[in-house]
Amino acid sequence: MPNGSAWRPPPRSLGCARYASAASSEAFTRRSTHAREEIDAFTRAVRALPGVLMVFHLTGVTDYLVWVAATDAQDLREFVVDHLATHPSVAHAETSLIYEHTRGPGIWGAADAA
Question: Between the CA of residue 8 and those of 81, 92, 102, what are the distances in Å?
Fold first, then answer.
């Protein structure tokens, strides 16, 4: 990839209308427990879920951001209900849809077409 950027397939090529993440076409989660082994197990479990594109472990009030490929808002809702909101260590789950995804110049000064 040019300038070390990561290629991401267009959502339609994955059979999806858009990317979603649960609190982001993301999902955000706040965990109720923070033991090291539970954090590692949760990260592994979420990474293995169908439709998960990326998992971010965050600082601040939100612990995780999960990018999910979803066909529509209902599909995202089902993912969150089935896998995140009902997980015993998740205290809160929130979603948002990504309307547009663009890249800045990055550290190499040239943005790739995304």
Answer: 26, 28, 12
